[in-house]
Write a structure and sequence with these properties.
alpha/beta, four-stranded parallel sheet, 8 strands, 13% strand, binds phosphoric acid mono(formamide)ester, binds norvaline
Length: 289
C-alpha cells in the first residue's frame, strides 16, 4: 500500500521530523538528490488557482530528476463524468505520485483509495499540509527547533490553514493558539478571542487570507475579522524574537499590515521558498518509502 499525504497527521511525529531533516539536507545540496532519474513522472493537478504550489512542485520534480505533468484545468482530465477512482487507476500505471489541489477533501480521499502511488494534498477546503511542512522548516531555520515553541494564528480560524496548523504544529511539539471571532473558529477547539492574549509571548505569529478560494461574503468577513489583523501593535505582545508567517497570497491592509509583511520579523519569502525543499523531501520520502 502506498503512503499518502492527505492531511498533516498522515505522517507520524517521527516521520514528519525525517521529512523536515531531509528538506534541510536538500536545501543545502539543492541539485544533489535525483531519486526520480529515469525520469519518473509526477502528475500535478489543479482545480483552483496557484502560484507557489504550481511553481514549487514543477521546479522540485525537475530537480529530483523527474518530469512534472502539470494539468491546470482538471476538467480536461475529469470533465466527462468519469469516477475519480478510474482516473486514479489510469494515472497510477504511469506516474510515481499524484499531487492534487481541489475543493472537497473527499475528492482526494477517493483518488487515494484507488491509487497504487502516493497521493499528496496540494490544498483542499479542509487542509493545506504541504504548506505546514514549509512553515515548520522555516521555524526550524530561525529557532533550531519546533518543540516547545508557541504559534499564534489570527483571522479565519475555520479555514484550511488553521486546521493544518493545529495538526501539523501539534505533531512538531508546538503549542497552537487560534485567535478568531465567533463564527470563524475551528470546530472542537477552544479558540482565543482576545488577540493580545493570544499573541502574548508567542514565537510565531501567523495569518492567512480572510477569504479563501471558493468563499464569498468578503464584505462581512472583512468587517468581522478586522480586529484580528496582524500589525505592529499586535506584534508588541509577542516574544521579541518572534517571526511572522503568511502562506501568501497576502492582502496588505486586511489580514496583515504592509509594514509587518515587509518588516524585519517577516520570513514569508523564506517560507515561500521552503515549499520547494519541503515538497522535494516529501516526494522523495513517500515515493521511496
Ligand atoms: N501558499 C500557497 O499555497 O500559494 P499558492 O496558492 O499560490 O499555491
Ligand atoms: N486559505 C487560503 C490559502 C491559500 C494558499 C485558501 O484556501 O485560499
Amino acid at each position: 500500500m502506498p503512503r499518502h499525504f492527505l492531511q498533516d497527521d498522515d505522517l507520524s511525529a517521527a516521520e514528519q521530523l525525517e521529512v523536515l531533516e531531509l528538506a534541510d539536507a536538500m536545501k543545502k545540496d539543492r541539485y544533489g538528490y535525483r531519486p526520480f532519474e529515469g525520469p519518473k513522472t509526477v502528475a500535478v493537478l489543479f482545480d483552483k488557482p496557484s502560484a507557489r504550489t504550481r511553481v514549487s512542485f514543477h521546479v522540485g520534480i525537475g530537480e529530483l530528476g523527474g518530469q512534472p505533468l502539470v494539468i491546470d484545468n482538471v476538467s480536461v482530465l475529469m470533465g466527462r463524468g468519469e469516477p475519480t477512482e478510474d482516473i486514479a487507476r489510469v494515472l497510477d500505471r504511469q506516474v510515481a505520485a499524484i499531487v492534487w489541489r481541489t475543493y472537497a477533501q473527499a475528492n482526494l480521499e477517493a483518488m487515494a483509495a484507488a491509487s497504487n502511488v502516493p497521493v499528496i494534498n496540494a490544498l483542499t477546503d479542509a487542509y493545506h499540509p504541504c504548506q505546514i511542512l514549509a512553515d515548520l522548516q522555516t521555524v526550524r531555520e530561525r529557532f533550531g527547533r519546533t518543540e516547545g515553541l508557541t504559534l499564534a494564528y489570527f483571522g479565519d480560524g475555520a479555514n484550511n490553514m488553521a486546521a493544518s496548523y493545529l495538526l501539523g504544529c501539534a505533531l512538531a511539539g508546538m503549542e497552537v493558539r487560534i485567535c478568531s471571532p465567533e463564527g470563524y473558529q475551528p470546530p472542537g477547539v477552544v479558540a482565543y478571542t482576545d488577540p493580545a492574549e493570544a499573541a502574548r509571548g508567542a514565537h510565531v505569529i501567523a495569518t492567512d487570507t480572510w477569504v479563501s478560494m471558493g468563499q464569498d461574503g468578503k464584505e462581512e468577513r472583512v468587517k468581522t475579522l478586522m480586529p484580528y489583523q496582524v500589525n505592529a501593535s499586535l506584534l508588541q505582545h509577542a516574544a521579541p524574537e518572534a517571526i511572522v508567517l503568511h502562506c501568501l497570497p497576502a492582502y496588505r491592509g486586511l489580514e496583515i499590515s504592509a509594514d509587518v509583511l515587509e518588516g524585519p520579523q517577516s520570513v514569508v519569502w523564506d517560507q515561500a521558498e521552503n515549499r520547494l525543499h519541503a515538497q522535494k523531501a516529501l516526494l522523495h520520502w513517500l515515493v521511496n518509502h
